[in-house]
Each structure stands twice: as structure tokens, then as C-alpha cells.
Amino acid sequence: MPTLGSPKLSLSQLLTRLIVVFFLCVTAGVYIQSYQLTLAGINQEISRTLVQTSRLLQNVFDSRLTALQIHQNTNAASMTLQSLVASEDSDALDDYFIEQEQQDVANTPDFRFIAKDDRVLWHDGSSLFHGIDNEGLDQLRLQLRSINRWTLTTVTTDTEQGYLLMRKTPIVFQSNGKLGGYLYVVVMLNGNFSFVKSLQRASDTQAVWLSADNATLASTLSGNDDIGKALTLPSEESSQAFRHYLVSQSKLRIGGESTKISLLSAQRNDNVVTLQRQMGINLLLTTLIIIIAAFWVNRFVKTRVADSLDRLMRYSQGARSRQRTLPFAGSDIEEFNHIGKTLESTFHALHEKERSLQDLFDYALSPIIVWDTDFAITRINPAAKLKLNYDEQIHASSWLYDQFMYAISPHLKRAVNGTILKGVNIEIDRRVYRWNLAPLMVDNQVKAVIGQGQEITSLIEAEQQSQRAKEAAEASARAKSEFLAKMSHEIRTPLNGILGITQILNDRAEDKAQKDLLGSLYQSGEHLLTVLNDILDLSKIEQGKMTIEYGEFYLQDIIRTVENIYTPLCESKSILLNIDAPIAADTMVRSDQSRLTQILFNLMSNAIKFTHAGQVGLTVTLAQREVEKTDGNENSSDQSTLRQSTLRQYTLRLVVSDTGIGMNQQALESLFDPFVQADSSVTRTYGGSGLGLSIVKSLLDLLEGDIDVTSEPDKGSRFVVEVPLTLVDNKPAKAPENVPFDPVSLGIKRVLLVEDNKINAMVAQAFCHKYHIEVEWVKDGEQALARLQQVKYDLVLMDNHMPNLGGVEATQAIRQTLGLSVPIYACTADAYGSVHDAFYQAGADYIIVKPIKEASFIEALRHLKLRHLKHGAHADS
């Protein structure tokens, strides 16, 4: 980045440099591309030329050998030569071959000899010039075994190692067809200037030479030739594009087979050198053109662009310093003219916005103040002056402003440090203002702080009233909850006596009329208990205390329970009960069994209550959903039931239909509202609290289910319930059903009953005596602790609300202070789960909810039996 002291470039200078750099880059790119393309073409042409030269030289060499071969074959077939060989006349053979050489000097070999009967019969004497005597000729004869085929061989002389091309042809007498000998022709490659010279002339090259084993055998070059001084052999990977001579090199092939003799040639490369020179000249010319173009562009930019830009800069500086916007004079360059017009409209819009902001600042009803970093006022609007009694002309502040600054100064210090503050409440003359403070930053430094206040006196008063109303509502809810809990306890306590004594009397009564009366009394108590439970459930739902307890159970258990309970009720009203539940007996699901049973009981009870003729139907189906997952996502209060199982997502569909009185559309709209029935006549005729369906809807919401109802007056109603649940595949072994249970077989000899109410104690004692269980009764927890220290008991039945020491505290003392493990079964009229949880945390083993029924008492004894079977007999400390 440029430093503050570095010189700034003008736009014309910057444009000139950019244009020059651009032209340089374009020219360099074109030059490089042209160079690459030219070099590729040259290399391709050189490669083609070298291949053609090599092939031409090979062809010339082959034609030379072919000519020698023809002459050799002609001589071998000559009758004259055959007669001379037969007579072994050496002088005549000399004359014969001298005559042959005079006729065709160009196709004469370097030397010849004839062998007969494994000896050299004759030679022309030329071999002696190459250092090969008769013994050497005999060795060559022995080396060459092939007939009518050129063969490369070597011979070692006194001066050097010679390379020769030899060919022998048989001399067959035509008179008798016998072999008379062999005619040998030899071409000596070492120093054979005439041979390479003929190759040079035929190939039209500047030089030809033969080499073997990095040694030159024959060459047309001499040490004084310029070409020989400039010539160097190329490597295999290097290019010959810019060499003065092109050198071709190929292995000499004899009879189609490659040899170690290399045949090389050199030819001038003038075209490429000329091209190289021309490329250099073009580069210089291009550079010169770029310099001239850059100079011209610089002049143009300075005369046209710089002047227009200077006018534009003067306009922008002048418009910034003036209070109003002057029109832009225009520019010859379209872009600069567009920029000037845009600046003109922008400055005009900015001035309008500044004026609007100033008007907003001045006429705002909320106080607005701008402080500097020393908390001195730099700007203040009229609303703030009025609220704070501040006089800007004399710069005098009132006690009201001083009080305001004293309250807001700590917040201003935070804003000066860069913190944005919102919702700062400051009281001014018994009026509350909520201030928002924000730092004004310039170059990441706080230069000022702006604050805006808004009067919220009425809002504060409304918030205080709302808080008081909230506290009153919470107090009312707590009072309602405490009242319901107390009323539940107070109602359940006498109900326990009524229902308990009714069951005792019913067991002892022998007259049928008395039994009927006792039955009616018991049903009335049950109805009162049902209403009480509905009210408590609704209270739990309203307070959000109703919880869902997931567990695994067999779906047929619910269906069987409904069938057992409601079949007698339907028979008593002479209506038909149809249950269609195609569910396998071993179908286990995971959901809240008690809540599902409660939903089904409420719907079935309503259907039977409002049906006088016809039938009541229940249809149960399961439909699989797509999602599959593993157990462990639901929260269960009974952690012992959780285990790894394969769960599949299903939807349980319950359809309850009847042929009863039905409902109209107006009644359906408020069907699920609490304490609401179809009309007042229904309440008078059928009774009820109107809570059943409201509780059903709330329970389905907790279970993430849904309910739909269709009904017509005098035709009946149809309720459709859908509840999501999971199907358990890995099921535990099902416990045997309807196992007979005899409480007498438990062997419980002594029970301690802790109960302050005489009637409740009498009911509990009666149930115990019925099953031959001895009971000792005490009236509070202190008496129970005293008796437990003296006597050993098999079971403790513990009430909750008692004088001196309550049931929860007594249970905790038995476990912690006395350290006893005796089973403790709580008998409480409190229906809220918090009381049950307190008992369990204190150490209770089981909860019996009052009023105590014989069935619930037997179920408690069954639980005690299972506990003994699992843990063995208890032992007191």
C-alpha cells in the first residue's frame, strides 16, 4: 500500500502506464505464440527433412551395393572367367578384371579375390593398399560363410581396425555344373573418400561421413573446411531449429538389418537462421511502435481526459463547500459528463436529506442530545431544551439538567468507550424517559455520543399494573391449586369411609334388597369419585402438571378390560356391544397405558350413557408409518422398563360409534370445552360434569394424537381417535394371565396401621381382618416410630396428613434414623403426583390412593408378594 508521503499519480499517468503495459503484454503474448508455432513448424520440417535425407542416403548406399552385386554376378557367370579359374591362370585373370574396371570404373569394388579349394587362388593386389596380405585374405575367406549376401566384417591391420563389406558368389562351371570356386568382392569403409563423396553428390548435402564406435571411418570433410569447424553432433533431445547445419544420423542397414555403422550427413539451415533474424527485427519494430503509441496516448489523455477530470474535481470540491447545489457545466467525454450529472443529483439529494434530518432533529417531540467525549453538549434539539430547562444562548444549565447529567453520566462513559446502550431509564421531574445512547465513530475512534429519549411514564405504570395483576393471578392459581388439593383430601377421606364401609357391609349382607341398596350407595360414591378425579385432571392440565408416562404393554389388555367392564353395562340397558379389534394377542406397544385406557373409558361411557337402543361399537386398528428408529427417545418414569428393542412407528386408530341421541352442529363446536354439554336438558336428564371430552382432547394433545367427531341428532355419534405409538418387536415373555391369588397365603402376620382418622382405620382393619391379618393401629408418626423400635412388623400402612409427625417424615425417619427395610405402603388421599414422589423419595415402596377399594387393596398385596418373590423375606436391623 502507498504511504502517506508517497507521490500520487494523476489519472493520465495511470492510464498511460496501463496502456503501455497492456500493449507490452499483448505483444509479448503474440510474439511468444508466434515463436512457439514457428518453432513447432520448423522442428516438424527439420524432422521430415532429416528422415528424407537418411532414407535418400540409405537408398544411394543400397543402389551402390546393388550395382556391385550385379557386376559380381555377371562376372561369376562369365564363361571366360570360368575357363580362367579352371586353368588357374593368374595373369589372364588380372587382364580380365582390368578390362572390366576400364569398362565401369564407378562400380568397381575396392578389391577382389577368388578362392578355390579352400585357398586364395587369385587377388587383384588392391588389398595390399589397405594392409591386407594373402594371410589376411585367407582369414576374410574363412570369416565369410554366407553366399550371395553382403556382410559387414572387421579386419585388424597394423595401423587400424578396418570395416569391410564383403560378398561372395559361387563360380559354377556351365560345362559340367561343378563348383569351380568363389568370387569375393570387398568394399573398404575406412578412408573410402570416393564412396562417401558419391553419397554426398547423390543426396545434395554439404557433408557425408561414416562412423563406428565413435570413430570416423570416412568423411568428405577436411580440417580446413568451415563446415567442419562449425559442425557439432546434436544430442537426441536437443532441437536443431537454430543451428547453421542440420545433421542427420542413422544406422546403416545392410540386407534389411541394422548395423553399428552410422551414416551421417550435414546440410545448411539458412532458412531458419533467416527467420530468426527476421523475428528479432519484428520485435524491435513492435517495441518502437508501442513507444510511439504510448507517447501519443499520453498526449491525448493529458489534453482531453485530464482537463475534463480537472473540471469534475473542481465541481465536486465546490459543491461540497457550498450550501446549495450548482448545475454541472458538462464535459466532452460522455463518462465524465455522466459522473458530473450523477454527482449533481447526488449532492442535491444529500442536501435535501441533510435539511430533512435537521428538520427531524429540530421538530422531534423526543429529546435528542449530542455530546462530545468530554460530555459537553454540541447539539440539542428544542424538545430536549424544554424537558431539561436548558438555555443554549447563555450556555447555562438548570438544576433539572444537572440532575439529569448526574444520572446519565455513568452511561455516557460506557458509550464513549464504544458501547451501544439501549433502554436506559432516567427520571426527569417525576417523568421517566428511556434513553438510547450510541457512539459516533470516525476512523474507528469515538468522536461524539448521540442520545435519544422517549417518555415511558405511562408504560412504566402499565408494566407495574401488569406485574401486580400477574402476581395476583399467580396467587389465585396457587390458592386454587391448594384449595383443590385440600378439597381432594377432605372429600376423599369421607369417601374412603363411605366406599370402604359399603364394601364391608355388602360382604356381610345376606338380603338381596340390602345388597341392592348397598350397591346403589357404592355406585353413587364411585360417581362422586369420578367427578372428583375429572376436576383434578382438568386442574393438572391447566397447570401443565399432567405428564405422560411411557411404558410397554399388550394392546389386547386394554381391549379386554373394556370388554369386561362395558359388556355388563350394555346388557343391563339391552343394547348390543360390538368390538372389532383384529389385533394379535402378542402385539406389544409403547405408550401411556393408563391415559389410553382413560380416553377409551370416557368415550365408551358417553356412548353407553346416551344410547337407549341399538348398539355401541368399538373398532381398533394399527397402521404402520414410514419412520423406523431405535428405542430410547421417550422419557419414562419407570426406568426398569427401558431396554434395547426394535421399535416401529405405528398409528393406533380407535373408532367409538353409537346409535344414541346424537348432536347438532352447534353442539359439536363447543363439544370439547370444559363444563359444557349439548344443552341444559342433557344435564338434567343424564347428569355429568361435562369434563370427560375436554380431558380426552387434552390427553390426546399430550400424546400428540387427534380426535374427530361426526354426529346427527337421533342417529348417533362417531368418534375417531388417532394416537402415534411404537410397536415393540423384541417382547419379553408374557406373564401368565388370571393367576389365582390368595392373600392368606402371603403369611403376613402383623401389620402396623398409621392413621389418624378413625373411620379410615376401621376400613383398613376390616380389609386386613378379612384376610386373617393382625393389625395394630397408631394415630401418628411418632407413635409408629416408637412401636417399630419395639415390635417387628411385616408391613406398614402409612397415612400422610397426621398430627405431630406426618407420613412422609415418618417414612424418612424409618429408613434413615431407624434403618429398617420393612415394606412401607403409603395410604393417602392426595391425588397429586408431587405427594407420591415425596413418599417414594422418603423410602415408600407402594402408593394406595384413597378411597381404598378391596380391589386396590388386593393389588397392593399382590405387589407385596411379587416383591417377596424377587427379593426374599425382609429382615429388620
Describe this structure in words.
It is built from 22 helices and 26 strands. The strands form five sheets. Strands 15, 16, 17, 18, 19, 20 and 21 form a seven-stranded mixed β-sheet that branches. The chain has a five-stranded antiparallel β-sheet with strand order 2-1-5-4-3, with helices on both faces. β4 (161-172) and β5 (179-188) form a beta hairpin. α1 (11-76) crosses α5 and α1 (11-76) runs antiparallel to α7. It is elongated. The model is unreliable at 1-5, 628-646, 680-688 and 869-877 (pLDDT under 50).
Task: Give the SSE map.
Blueprint: H1 11-76, H2 79-87, H3 90-103, E1 111-115, E2 120-123, H4 134-143, E3 151-156, E4 161-172, E5 179-188, H5 193-203, E6 207-212, E7 215-219, H6 226-230, E8 245-254, E9 257-268, H7 270-321, H8 334-363, E10 368-372, E11 377-380, H9 382-388, H10 399-416, E12 421-428, E13 431-442, E14 445-455, H11 457-508, H12 512-543, E15 551-554, H13 555-572, E16 576-580, E17 588-591, H14 593-609, E18 615-630, E19 646-658, H15 665-669, H16 680-686, H17 692-702, E20 706-712, E21 716-728, E22 750-754, H18 758-770, E23 774-778, H19 781-790, E24 795-798, H20 807-817, E25 824-828, H21 833-842, E26 846-849, H22 854-871
Parallel strand pairs: 16-18, 22-23, 22-24, 24-25, 25-26
Antiparallel strand pairs: 1-2, 1-5, 3-4, 4-5, 6-7, 6-9, 8-9, 10-11, 10-14, 12-13, 13-14, 15-17, 17-21, 18-19, 19-21, 20-21
Helix pairs in contact: 1-5, 1-7, 2-3, 7-8, 11-12, 11-18, 12-17, 13-14, 14-17, 19-20, 20-21
